[in-house]
Amino acid sequence: MRLRSTDNRLIEILEKQKQDLVVRVLKKHEEVEAGKEFTNTILASLSDLFLLLTNTFQLVQANQEFYRTLGYCSAKNSNLALKDLVGADECSSIRLALENGEFTDFETHFIDHSGRRIPVNLKGSTYTTESGRTLHMLIATDRSDFYAMMRRMHEAQEQLIHSVRLASLGEMAAGIGHELTQPLNAILLFSRNCLKVLHDPVTYKGMLEENLNIIIDRVNKASSIIRSLKSFGGKTVDETTAVNVNAILANILKFLQSQLALSEVEVELHLDTSLPHVPGQEVKLEQVFLNLIQNSIQAMGRTDQPRMTIRTFLQSQMDPETLQEKSYVGIMIQDNGEGISPDMQKKIFDPFFTTREVGTGMGLGLSIVDRIIRGLSGFIKVESPAGEGASFLVFLPPCPNPPGSA
Questions:
Q1: Phi and psi angles of residue 219, each rounded to the nearest 5 degrees, phi first
Q2: What is the four-CA torsion angle of 151, 160, 294, 181, rounded to 10 degrees?
Q3: Nearest C-alpha neighbor of 211 from the set 196, 193, 237, 228
Q4: Coil, strand, or helix at residue 371?
Q5: Do both 369 and 255 map to the same domain?
Q6: Which among 295, 296, 290 is positioned nearest to 363, based on CA atoms?
Q7: Radius of gyration for the alpha carbons in the chain, expressed in angstroms and rounded
Q8: DSSP secondary structure string for all residues of 239-298
Q9: Where in the sequence is the domain holding 73, given as residue range(s)?
Q10: What letters, b where the CB count within 10 A reaches 16 and e where it falls short, cover 90-121?
C-alpha cells in the first residue's frame, strides 16, 4: 500500500515537470516569435536596403525596401546570391572587405531585375551565431537621387561657365570692332581706287592687281577674326586631356591683342618651355586665364603705364587637402594696377561678389575660376602688396605621364 502511494506521488511529480517543461517551451517559442515580429517590423521601417547573407553569400533575408527598389520577388528569387546583385568582380571586392572587418562607405551598383544599375553606398559587417553559423549583413543606401542632383548641378555649372564666356566676349566687343574696322576701311579704300581706274584698265593693270590682292588679304584677315570669335564662343567642353598651358596663354593673348593695344598694356611673357602638360579641359582653362587677364586689364584702367607680367613655372607647393608637398605647374598673372585690399582678398572668390559698378558685372568670374581650378585638383592664390598691383597664382598638378614638354 505504501509502495503504491509512492508510485502515485512520483507520477504526479513527473506530470508536473512535464507540464512545466511544456509551459517553458511555449513561452520560449512565444519570445522567439515576438523577436522575429519585432525584427521584421524594424526591417520594414528601414528606408535603406537590408540584406542578410550566408557565408557563401547566398541571400537569406531582405527587407521590403530591397524588393521594392530592385523589383525582385521574395518567393520567385529565393536563390539570389550577392554576385547576381553586384557582379562577380564587385562580389570579390565586398568579400575581401568583409574579411578585413566591418566597413562603411563602399560605393558600388546593384543590378535590379531588369538589368538596370542602381548606385548604392554599402555598410557591411559579419556575425557568428551561438550555433556557429556565419552571417553577413549589408545595408545599402540608394544614391540615385544624389547622382541625379550632381548631374543637374554639373549641367548648370557648364551653362553658367558658357554664359560667363559669352559675357567675356561682349566685354571684348570694342577691341574686336577696332580690329575689324581696319580691314574694312582698307577694303573700302582699295575698292574705290579700282573703280577710279576702270576707264583704262590696261594702263593701270599693275595697280588693279595690287589693290585686288590687298582687298583679298584684308577680307581673309576679317574672316579669320570672325572665325576665331565664333570658335572661342562656340567651343564645347571636352573630356579631360593633357593640356599645354603655354599654348593656351599664347592663344588668349593673340585673341586679346586689339584689346591690349587699345588699353596700351605692355605685356611681359616668361613661359617655361620645359613645363609638363596638365590634366584639364582646354575650354575651361581658356575661361580661367581669360577672366584673370581681363580683370588685370580693367584693374590698370587708371594706371599711367599699365604693365602685365605672365609667367609659367614648376614649383613645389603644399596640397591644401593632404597638406603634403607636391610639384605643381604654376601660372602667374601680375599687373601694376590699383591692387586689392586685404578685406577684398577674403571675398573676391565668393559668388556674386564684385567691385564693379552696379550693372557692369555679375560677380561670377572669379567664383567660376576658383571652382574650375579646384575641380582640376588645383588651387588659386592672390597676392597684392600695398601699392604694387595684384598677382593671381594658379597651381595645377602635372600629368602623371606627361606627353612631352610644352
A1: -65, -45
A2: 130
A3: 193
A4: helix
A5: yes
A6: 295
A7: 37
A8: --EEE-HHHHHHHHHHHTHHHHHHTT-EEEEE--TTPPPEEE-HHHHHHHHHHHHHHHHH
A9: 46-142
A10: bbeebeeebeeeeeeebebebbeeeeeebbbb
DSSP codes of every residue in 41-105: HHHHH-SSEEEEEETT-BEEEE-HHHHHHH---TTTTTT-BHHHHH-HHHHHHHHHHHHT--EEE
Q: What are phi and psi of 83, to 5 degrees?
A: -65, -25
Q: Which amino acid is at 59?
A: L
What distance in Å separates the CA atoms of residue 136 and residue 117, rounded to the nearest whole number?
A: 22
Picking from 341, 342, 367, the residue whose alpha carbon sits closest to that of residue 354 is 367
Segment 227-234 mean pLDDT:
58
Number of domains in the chain: 4
Do both 261 and 375 map to the same domain?
yes
Is the CB of residue 104 less than 8 Å from the CB of residue 123? yes
- Quote the CA–CA distance of 230 and 165 in Å, as a whole number: 12
Single-letter residue type at 134: T
Distances (CA, A) of 196 to 2, 204, 214, 216, 301: 156, 10, 16, 18, 45
Spatial distance between the Cα atoms of 92 and 136, rounded to a whole number of angstroms: 14
Give the integer Cα–Cα distance in Å for 271 and 281.
20
Cell matching residue 59:
541571400
Residues 56 and 74 in one domain: yes
Same domain, 284 and 224: no
Neighbouring CB atoms inside 10 A of 282's CB total 18
Q: How many CA within 13 A on the CB side of residue 288?
A: 28
C-alpha cell at 289: 586665364
Final residue belonging to a domain, choices 101, 118, 142: 142
> How much is the pLDDT for 147?
81
C-alpha distances out from residue 369 to 47, 89, 376, Å: 39, 39, 11
Residue 61 has a CB neighbour count (10 Å cut-off) of 15
Average pLDDT, the chain: 77
**7 and 25 in a common domain:** yes
Model pLDDT for residues 142-199, shown as the tens digit of each residue: 888 888 888 887 777 677 666 666 665 665 555 566 557 667 777 887 788 788 888 8
Q: Is the pTM of this model over 0.85?
A: no
Give yes or no: residues 15 and 77 share one domain.
no
